Amino acid sequence: MKKKAILVDAAPAAVGPYSHANVIGDLVFVSGQLPLKNGELLEDIQEGTKACLTNLKTILEGVGSNLDQVVKVNIFLRDMGDFAAMNEVYATFFTQDEPARSCVAVKTLPKDARVEIEAIAHL
What we know:
CATH superfamily: RutC-like
Radius of gyration: 13 Å
Shape: globular
Oligomer: single chain
Strand order of the largest sheet: 1-2-3-8-6-7
Structural class: alpha+beta
């Protein structure tokens, strides 16, 4: 199977040399989404989580998928102390048949963001 790189105009521009997503067969691999809204990096963990997931949703819809088709999510936090606040917002985006998920703390993220979220979904 050949991969197809995707850029979605409605989503924030990638902050490096990569695409928003790659489609391989019936799977969509969405790149990590930073807490960007209108070009601004959000510092509040709840607003940032909402922005990450909204950007993820925008990309999925741009390739013909949606959040209900997400099978795996990876979350990267700068501080595991943000876990509960992030999780509170995350739960409003995935309300049933929740995808498998990992959440890890990392030393730093691009642009010194507090959170980054990536996903794999079906088309």
